[in-house]
Amino acid sequence: MANNIQSIRGMHDILPDSTPLWQHFEKIVRTLLGNYGYNEIRMPLVEQTDLFKRAVGEVTDIVEKEMYILENRKDSEGSEPFSMALRPEGTAGCVRAGIQAGLIFNQQQRLWYAGPMFRAERPQKGRYRQFTQIGVETFGFAGPDIDAELIAISARLWKQLGLRNIHLEINSLGTLEARQAYRQLLVDYFSDQQELLDEDSKRRLHTNPLRILDSKNPAMRELVAAAPNLHEHLDTESAEHFSQLQSLLDGMGIPYRLNPRLVRGLDYYSRTVFEWVTDELGSQGTVCAGGRYDGLVEQLGGRPTPACGFAMGVERLILLLETQNIPTPATAPDLFMIMAGDKAIQAGLGFAEQLRDNLPDLRLVSNCGGGNFKTQMKRADKSGAAFALILGENEIERGEIGLKPLRTKGEQINLPFSSLTAHLSQLLENAKQH
Ligand code: ATP
Ligand code: MG
Question: I want to staple 312 with a disulfide (CB 3.0 to 4.6 A). Which of 24, 102, 192, 288 is the partner?
Fold first, then answer.
């Protein structure tokens, strides 16, 4: 027998016993974003590799070592082959789409997207090669009010999901210009201590020294902790923007911690950056991260436009929901229809459709694949249904259908066909109130 082919390492199936939790999560996010006036956008999973090089930055983990590049091929129109990559994140594609469709220039946009991202990382708990992000991006808002709104949306999301123990960290990176001056300070500081730098940091010293602050290497911790502090080198306007953001957060009652080491792994950020972090997921504790990226639209060929957004890691949030034992709303059927005998199947499938016509919310599973009464009863039980509808030759002759509670004690009752809909509708109504 041939070997079974397995899924690719770091790329997981989400099996039917997990999808109810995912759907619950997605429904809450969709509703929440809609309520705040955000519109969904859907982009391709694949873009030109150059897009990510230009947006995310050449000297970043993502571009240097985490992208899946697709085999180049000429398309049938004979255009030159170009390099394509599976998207490692969504902001670049969203900005590309926004510029291309004319959604950004001189407008205000509140957008969101959801879907898989791909990064060639070492898989571990909370870190995968295919993972899901929900991203939220805004364009055309320069002030800190939108930064505050984005943070409020995420705070409300945790609350609606029932999640606890997620903490907000914020920082400001200043403008690109102010960062240049600070950058020189960092280069001087780290150059004096070259022998203490790890390989990655040595390489980044002259290409992207800020990224050294973002180093995950514990051996670098002390060196990084003593580095010059960005806050003391912020430009006046950014400092003002940042202090306004803080008073808006105070006003909304959202607690935060100032973290001057928070630089984020992507090059495109300016001014506000933030992360939501939990200590319940080991080292993969960041469940949501974002900030302002005022330079990116222009960098990708659009007119200069302020922008701010965030992305959350859905797998990590699902893990946290599981860790905190947060219950998922029930998804079991209301009814399982048992039909024994040809006549009963003939009549029963007809009834089932009538019931669905009359009760659009009804969750009804019909027995398929035959089986005697006992077999079907077992299936009904396994389905998790609250009630079994029972239809056999006898019931058909009497013009009745049996209704038997499966989760609670109680006797089967027999209902005339004519009163079935009314009775079930009452039953559903009662169930909703519990
Ligand atoms: P990390 O520091 O954990 O590598 P990052 O800075 O690379 O995160 P972002 O690019 O900001 O992450 O992505 C936003 C969010 O997406 C992260 O906060 C995290 O929740 C999630 N995420 C990022 N990479 C992965 C991954 N490989 N697997 C699962 N979730 C991920
Ligand atoms: Mg990363």
Answer: 288
Note the pLDDT tens digit of each residue in 357-416: 999 999 999 999 999 999 999 999 999 999 999 999 999 999 999 999 999 999 999 999
Percent of the chain with pLDDT over 70: 97
Of residues 117 and 218, more confidence is placed in 117
DSSP assignments along 15-66, one per residue: -TTTHHHHHHHHHHHHHHHHHTT-EE----SEEEHHHHHHHH-TTSHIIIII
Among 284, 331, 413, residue whose Cα is nearest residue 20: 331
Do 88 and 52 touch, CB atoms closer than 8 A?
yes
Within 101-238, strands assigned E span 109-118, 130-139, 167-172
| Tens digit of each residue's pLDDT (9 = 90 or more) over 282-331 | 999 999 999 999 999 999 999 999 999 999 999 999 999 999 999 988 88
Per domain, the residue ranges of the chain are 19-175+235-323, 335-433
Residue 79 has pLDDT above 80, yes or no: no
- What's the helix, strand, coil split of the chain in %, to 5? 45, 20, 35
| Radius of gyration of the CA atoms of the chain, in A | 28
Q: How far is the CA of 311 from the centre of ligand 1 (A)?
A: 8
Ligand 1, atom nearest to 310 Cα: 14
The pLDDT, as a whole number, for residue 247 is: 98
Specify the pLDDT at position 137. Answer: 98
Phi and psi, residue 320, nearest 5° = -70, -40
Q: Provide the whole-model pTM.
A: 0.91
> Atom 25 in ligand 1: which residue has the minimum CA distance?
127
As a whole number of angstroms, the distance between CA 154 and CA 277 comes to: 12
Homologous superfamily in CATH for domain 19-175+235-323 = Bira Bifunctional Protein; Domain 2 (3.30.930.10)
Measured from CB, residues less than 6 Å from any atom of ligand 1 are 89, 119, 121, 126-128, 131, 133, 265, 284, 286-289, 311, 313, 315-316
For 271, the 3-state DSSP assignment is: strand
Cβ atoms of 385 and 334 closer than 8 Å: yes
Tell me which residue of 346, 286, 281 sits closest to 310, measured CA to CA: 286
Ligand whose nearest atom lies closest to the CA of 283 = 1
* Ligand 1 atom closest to residue 126's alpha carbon, by position in its atom list: 29
| Distances, alpha carbon 220 to alpha carbons 190, 200, 205, 216, in Å | 11, 11, 13, 8
Fold designation for 335-433: Rossmann fold (3.40.50)
Spatial neighbors of 273 by CB under 8 A, at least 6 apart, are 170, 171, 172, 173, 262, 263, 264, 289, 290, 291, 292
